[in-house]
Automatic annotation (TrEMBL):
Name of the molecule in the record: Uracil phosphoribosyltransferase
Binding, 5-phospho-alpha-D-ribose 1-diphosphate: 79, 104, 131-139, 200
Record's keyword terms, sorted: Allosteric enzyme, Glycosyltransferase, GTP-binding, Magnesium, Nucleotide-binding, Transferase
Gene name in the database record: upp
Positions that bind uracil: 194, 199-201
Reactions mediated catalytically: UMP + diphosphate = 5-phospho-alpha-D-ribose 1-diphosphate + uracil
Function, in words: Catalyzes the conversion of uracil and 5-phospho-alpha-D-ribose 1-diphosphate (PRPP) to UMP and diphosphate.
Length: 209
């Protein structure tokens, strides 16, 4: 089973409230999504590997820990996952960024892959997939499968809001993938939207509706 972590830091809850608010416009929405992604990245990277190095302070020599050579990749699910990339990059500036394009067919709710460009050495990198919303989980499940098919092994999934249905589906299909969410909401409605959710993340980020 996937490890599921809800990151409920007060700053994240505060910002998420304004992200959910339908009166928040695209500019502020984008800023908030980036900020929450940055705060979440702190927790998502809690267990990344360190190695010991010797450092000379102005006083003496001491042993310190720095990030080991293990490389990372951030892979947003287009479009909405893009809104989280810069926030994560603020904490992990050396990460490479891949892109995977998925959209949901609004009638069948089935995801359709339309683009995939990943760092060449994806199989050697720890991967963080970003997408603000996990609803049925279909898009994230297919994105994870697409990455695994191209060699990715160590994958974590980071979202702002997840529905219980989506978490279960991903955990059943990809029990090796840990899931991080700022909130696990109540349910999906008949149109496949998360309740209470935040509406359509892509449209709100890019002002397309
Ligand atoms: C949204 C969201 C997820 C997907 C979640 O993308 O960003 O990728 O829906 O739904 P699911 O869990 O049921 O698959 P959307 O398909 O609206 O595309 P967009 O980001 O281009 O707007
Ligand atoms: N995609 C979104 O952007 N929002 C939802 O609530 C569900 C899927």
């Amino acid at each position: 089973m996937s490890k599921v972590t809800q990151i409920t830091h007060p700053l994240i809850q505060h910002k998420l409230a304004y992200i959910r608010d339908k009166n928040t416009g695209s500019k502020y929405f984008r800023e908030l999504v980036e900020e929450v992604a940055m705060l979440m990245a702190y927790e998502v990277t809690r267990d990344i590997q360190l190695e010991e190095v010797e450092i000379e302070t102005p006083i003496c020599t001491t042993k310190c820990k720095v990030l080991s050579g293990k490389k990372m990749a951030i892979v947003p699910i287009l479009r909405a996952g893009l809104g989280m990339v810069d926030g994560v990059l603020k904490l992990i500036p050396a990460a490479k960024v891949g892109h995977i394009g998925m959209y949901r067919n609004e009638e069948t709710l089935q995801p359709v892959e339309y683009f995939c460009k990943l760092p060449q050495d994806i199989s050697e990198r720890d991967v963080i997939i970003t997408d603000p919303m996990i609803a049925t989980g279909g898009s994230a499940m297919d994105a994870i499968s697409a990455l695994k098919k191209r060699g990715a092994k160590n994958i974590r999934l980071m979202c702002l809001i997840a529905a219980p249905e989506g978490i279960k589906a991903i955990s059943d299909a990809h029990p090796d993938v840990d899931i991080y969410a700022a909130s696990i909401d109540e349910k999906l409605n008949e149109q496949g939207y998360i309740v209470p959710g935040l509406g359509d993340a892509g449209d709100r980020l890019f002002g397309t509706k």
